[in-house]
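Support request, please re-run this one:
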Amino acid sequence: EANRSRVEERMGLVRGALEIGPRTPFECLPALAGIAEPEPLALNWVLTETLCYLRRLEVSGVVERIEGAEPTRWQLA
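Re-run finished. Output below.
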């Protein structure tokens, strides 16, 4: 249960990053990592985690990928 709560909390951070407007996964990193520029090793992990949360939020209908955006961006649905 604690793990589920933590995942929900972290997904909320990614969702919160999109409240200011459309963002790339990389632009969501500071909200999730809690720092502006994560170390290179942490960067890989946090980027993967961010992409997973964005996908989960997309499947849930909370966010949507902006079609044709380059680089790929998400926004609140």
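The CA atoms of residues 1 and 7 lie 10 Å apart. The chain has a mean pLDDT of 92.
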